[in-house]
Amino acid sequence: MTQLFHRYPRQQLPIAVGGTGIELIDQNGKRYIDACSGAAVSCLGHGHSAVIRAIKQQADQLAYAHTSFFTNQPAEQLASTLAASAPGSLNHVYFVSGGSEAVEAGLKLARQYFVEIGQPQRQYFIARRQSYHGNTLGALAIGGNVWRREPFVPLLIEAHHVSPCYAYREQLAAETDQQYVQRLADELEQKILSLGSDKVAAFVAETVVGATIGAAPPVGDYFKKIRAVCDKYGVLLILDEVMCGMGRTGYLFAYEQDQVEPDIVLIAKGLGAGYQPIGAMLCTDQLYDAIVEGSGFFQHGHTYIGHATACAASLAVLHTIKEQDLLSNVIQRGKQLRSRLRDALANHPHVGDIRGRGLFVGIELVADRLSKTPIDRARRTHSKVKSEAMLRGLLVYPMGGTIDGQHGDHILLAPPFICSAAEIDEIVNRLVPTIDAATKHT
Question: Which of 117, 120, 181, 416 is the most exposed place for a label (fewest CB within 10 A)?
Fold first, then answer.
């Protein structure tokens, strides 16, 4: 028996007692390759000495001071580092303790911005179906993850959703990439007009969709089209890079690859690499100045924002990524991973699509690859993938409801940035028999 309230109280979990490099170790000494970095968190793997040392040094000096009384050096330095790294004018950083908090901060800033500039009627947020933006009530309301939302719908604020950029399922056979993204941009425009062009505050999207669809990247100039629609109607663009940011796609900020500038970007997970809980919201000069020149107070806050020890850990993470040129490794190992998967699974009857950017890769499983028919949901194939992988000493991030919240299965891979070529090969070597076993008799 345990007094710990687990996510799934009926399950008995192994106890993690250690970790080194890309492996975690349980109480029996069994080693697991962490091919998903937990939930795209442990980008530097486990037991990283430089990050651990930074945490210890900061805790010895100052662990915590409340931000209503003090600022601290690690928070100031980390903010400067992030602002200097973010393309465009996202020069202002607000620290929180994780991804859901970052999303909440972004939503509240967007709303307060319009109040400050005399447009209080802007109250609606538009996001995408099959998105995921966090589990707090505001973030859950904006997100399009049906399974997570359903029990709490009566508690959620009103939000509106348009189609995701999900080429494998939703791009028509006769459509070019340009036609597809134009259709999606037109859909957003029509949604804005239907709600009232002066009543929409922001459009919220994951730059690369993470958990709900499984590493689905935008097609072509999708975000340029979306940015243009937002600009036409004075709507803010909020990009959620909680999962796909901080180097996961090969760029510190994933939106850089799409050559757009959001008004707000949200980060977490890889920012602290799992060594300390931390997230952040970055905003443009325009939004920041509206607060400073208006009320002078962002009406938001949590106890642990700007936590000195967490910020010190993140500085060490970012320093390691830069000094070891890990973004280059992410790009190289990502190409290798997708190539090896496509070679190994080219003729697999139950692998429909392999997609992603950098070390952020999704594999969609199907009953039939030609028709793209999803596997019967009653089989809970994604759960079988997880258990079969763990038997083989492999950790992956599978999920069901890929298509509409109920049907479809996928596997998300997000190995640490420090992976070697040999370790990528071993991930594939363990994953292929995992998929075979999980889809047997499908």
Answer: 120
